[in-house]
Amino acid sequence: MVEDLKNRSDDPGEVTILDEVIDLEVYAKAGERPPLAKGYRIKINGDPYVISDPKVTGREILTLAGLLPVENYTLRLKILGNRPEKIGLDEEVNLRKRGVEKFKALPRDQTEG
Question: Does a structural domain hold residue 70?
C-alpha cells in the first residue's frame, strides 16, 4: 500500500496531498513519514478513529475517543521502536511525524494529578 502511494509523484521533493484517509499504523510499520491527507486513521485503545487535522492535542484525542472528562485520563503515544511517551492535555502531536503508531489512554489513579 505504501509503495503505491510513494510512486504517485514524479518530483521527489513535491509534497503529495492524498484525497483519502490513511492509516498511520501502516506508515509507522513501513518506516515511512505519512503524507498530507484528507484524514488520518489513528488507534486509541485499539479502536480506530479518523481525524482530519494532522496536528492534534491530547485533549482532542481523548475527546474523540469519548474519554470524558479528559482530566481523568493519562494519554500515551506509541512511536515505533520507542517506549510509549506521556502526552499532556494541551500538548500537540504531529500525526505526520515518522513512526506515530497508536495511542493508549488509561484512567488516572485517585492519587494522580
Answer: yes
59 inside domain = yes
Cα angle vertex 9, ends 5, 13, to 5°? 110
CB contact at 8 A, 77 and 103:
yes
Domain with residue 76: its CATH number is 3.10.20.90
The string of pLDDT tens digits covering residues 36-81 is 999 999 999 999 999 999 999 999 999 999 999 999 999 999 999 9
CA 109/CA 43 separation, integer angstroms: 23
Domain hosting residue 46, numbered range: 2-107
Radius of gyration of the chain (CA): 15
pTM of the model: 0.81
Number of folded domains that form the chain: 1
Residue 25 to residue 69: CA distance in whole angstroms: 27
DSSP state for residue 70 in the 8-state scheme: G
Grid cell, residue 18, equals: 492524498
- Is residue 112 assigned to a domain? no
